[in-house]
Each structure stands twice: as structure tokens, then as C-alpha cells.
Amino acid sequence: MQDLLEKCLYYKGEESCPAELKALGYNGIWYYEMLWVERDDLRDENGFNMLEYKHYGLTPFNENDGTPMTLKALLFNRHMHWTGGWGPENDVKSFKQWYLENYLAKRR
After folding, report:
1. How far is CA 41 from the centre of its chain?
2. Which of 11, 36, 64, 70 is the most exposed place for a label (fewest CB within 10 A)?
């Protein structure tokens, strides 16, 4: 489990989201990272999220940034669920922007 936690930017094994992350609005990301660590199916390279991620042509997107592709696929799926619906091209573009400007913000 420790090797999975090291891949997460926000979830570090806590039982609940830390107050400072909640205050910054990162509780959703924390939650999805927690699910990714706890559920084997969300790390399945042949699972639905990965098939969707590949279908939308995102496989080469920031592939060497240290975030596992299965985690990016989960984040893409959730991004589409909460903010998508404006067409595939726009959904992919908005995910890339969100990922670079918001998710990776902690890594800077």
C-alpha cells in the first residue's frame, strides 16, 4: 500500500480528508485518490476507466509525470462525470487544463 500512497499527491492514508485540503477545495481529489489506493478494480489496466481514457486518446498525455495512468484515468472519468458533456474534444481539453493547472498544482 505504501508504494500506492507515494503516487498520490493528496491522499496519504488518513481516515478523513485533512482540514487544510478541504479549505482549498481538494477534498474531492483526496477522496478519488483514496478510492484508487483502496480498490484494485480502479487500478486495473484493462478496466472501464482505462478503456475510456485510451478511447479518448489520452494515453500519451503527460505520461512521464509520475502519476500512474490508472489514476489519471479515474480522474478523467470523474472529471467527465462532474464537468463533461460538452463534446469529446472539449471534455478532453478541459480535463488536460484542469489536470495541469489544478491537480498538479501541489507538485509545483
Report:
1. 15
2. 64
Give the contacts of 107 (CB within 8 A, at least 6 positions apart). 9, 66
Encoded amino acid at 71, one letter: L
Please state, as a whole number, how many other Cβ atoms lie within 10 Å of the Cβ of residue 103: 22
Environment class of residue 46 by beta-carbon count within 10 Å: exposed (0-12), middle (13-18) or buried (19+)?
exposed
Question: Angle 69-83/88-101 helices, nearest 10 degrees?
Answer: 120
Give the whole-angstrom CA distance, residue 97 versus residue 86. 15
CA–CA separation, 76 and 69 (whole Å): 10
Q: pLDDT tens-digit profile of 30-45?
A: 999 999 999 999 999 9
Find the length of the chain: 108
Q: What is d(CA 90, CA 23) in angstroms, rounded to the nearest whole number? A: 29
